[in-house]
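Project standup — Tuesday

K.O.: blocked on the structure for the chain from last sprint. Re-posting the sequence here as requested.
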Amino acid sequence: MRPGSESSEAGPEPPRASPPSALQTADRALQILLMFDDAHPEWGVTGIAREFGITKSMAHRLLATLTGRGFLMSDPDTRRYRLGPSTLTMGRMWERCGSIQMLVNPILRELSSRTGTSTVLALPDHFHMRTVAAVDGSSGPLRMQPLIGELYPAHAGATSKAYYAYLPVSQRRQLFMGQPVARYTDRTVTDPLVLENEFLAIRERGYALTTGEYDAHVVCIAVMVAAQGRPYGSLSAAGPVETFTDPERFVPALHRAAASIEARLSRRTRANR
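H.V.: unblocked you, prediction finished:
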């Protein structure tokens, strides 16, 4: 039972138990976070100790640890705790990544099945593109398994170029002129002027195609994904150079899949209004 209020922080300590294991401590910390809701936006040390049957000193240590990591914040006047900024950060990450996966994974699976490649939806993250949804559709000894959270540099590989090609020229210049441009393979383009010409060509033909720019063993073809009329991310299909020999035949399938993703994003936006 959750107490609605705490009259004071005084009270007898419960009997001391044997020290909890690290796993038990982690589980208890997570349970504490789940105690905060609309009905109970604040908790004190006594309430947490009573709820879990632990000593107040142990409850204080758990609350202090969560506060130190930003998951809770304490009011110095009332000595009570509320959820902290780290919970907001994680919530936004779920909204950005977790819900997106559920939204687009069926489309990625169908595209992977059609192309026999690994498919990736990536979103911009500072000077990179970050994989937020991916399906491994490759098979055999030569495989390319994309990882959720993997970062791709803005200047190397079709996954990034398909998105950055649609940004305003002034924004690209600011991005690439002011940042070091690393070379990952002997095919990585590092000259800002050459990159700008590539971006213009990508935008004109509607897709990006690269071979061995970021990973020497990977061919990647990608298209831009839009949301509310603006560049949102990129959708790519990738495979080993040994087997992915005619990627441009999949351009229509990529555009259809991107359109399906855009339609789902639009429906979600309308539903959230």
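K.O.: great, moving the ticket to review. The chain has two domains: 22-83, 92-272. The two ends are 36 Å apart (CA to CA).
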